[in-house]
Amino acid sequence: MRIDVLTLFPEMFSGPMSTSLLGKAIDNEILDIQYTNPRDYAQDKHFSVDDAPYGGGPGMVMKCEPLFAAVDSLREVNSLKRVVLMSPRGRPLTQTIVKEWSESDDLVLICGRYEGFDERISQALVTDEVSIGDYVLSGGELPAMVIIDALSRMLPGVIGDFDSVSSDSFYDGILGAPQFTRPPDFKGMTVPDVLMSGNHALIERYRRKEALRVTRERRPDLLEHCSAEDAELLNEIDNEEHESDS
Ligand code: ADE
User: Fold this and answer.
1) Nearest-CA neighbor of 108 among 158, 153, 73?
2) For residue 38, which of 85, 91, 82 has the smallest C-alpha distance?
3) In ligand 1, which atom is closest to the CA atom of 130?
4) Which of 6, 120, 128, 171 has the most CB within a 10 Å radius?
């Protein structure tokens, strides 16, 4: 998969993109990340990429011309089917979006700085606007890295053991089950017997049930459309909780 990142600060990406799984995905040519600096496409003698907002007010706004020209320069190497703007005004990023994008051949991620973008960039240049949470960062570089990291986990060959991806929180829409490793007893806190039983069917059922339990405690919004099997397990949890109350 090819990802073109438009950023005024490509150097911010060097550490995260060369470390651990992402570094390997790039070395193994599963992921090809290229950087384009909108400043190289600025059209005035000062190479400006931002300007004061019409109507007044604080801060600067990213200009149309450098971003439109920078995206246009990618026409030969990127399908430009998905041009994504990082913005706190975007729709919230979810695992469903990440999975869908990981199935594309390419992607453009636009990182902004300053107070925002000229609205015509949203209207006519980008296909999607995403936010990584309800807080404001100083620029879109960290959100772009978050997207690249989450996407790379979905690409075949990046994570050796795909079962480990499918047990991630959110992979199948709910939070992940609690995990344990050795020792079986740490300061009196023990590992549930079922996990050491070797009975895979029982272990799978236990994990699904515990994943549902933790999801209902922390993120009940994720359980709105659960399956009949999950509803049955949730019922079982309710009954156990009622029994332990009485
Ligand atoms: N740019 C600044 N804040 C952001 C956020 N929360 N998500 C995406 N892009 C941003």
Assistant:
1) 73
2) 85
3) 8
4) 6
- Residue 164 above 90 pLDDT? no
Q: Which of 38, 141, 153, 230 is catalytic?
A: 153
The answer to whether residue 53 is catalytic is no
DSSP classification of residue 40: G
- Give me the residue label for tokens 């079962």: 163
pLDDT (tens digit, 9 = 90+) per residue, 144-156?
999 999 999 999 9
Q: Residue written as tokens 């996990």?
A: 195
Question: For the chain, what is the mean pLDDT?
Answer: 95
How far does residue 142's CA lie from ligand 1's centre (Å)? 8
pLDDT at 162 over 80: no
Give yes or no for residue 189 having a pLDDT over 80.
Answer: yes
Distance 100 CA to ligand 1 centre (A): 20
Which pLDDT score is estimated for 158? 93
d(CA 156, ligand 1 centre) in Å: 28
- Say how far apart CA 86 and CA 84 lie, in whole Å: 7
- 88 vs 222: CA distance, rounded Å: 22
> Which residues, judged by CB distance below 6 Å to any ligand atom, belong to the binding site of ligand 1?
86-88, 131-133, 135-137, 140, 143
Active-site residue flag, 163: no
- Domains recognised in the chain with CATH numbers: 2-152 (3.40.1280.10), 169-245 (1.10.1270.20)
Atom of ligand 1 nearest to the CA of 87: 9
Any idea how long the chain is? 246
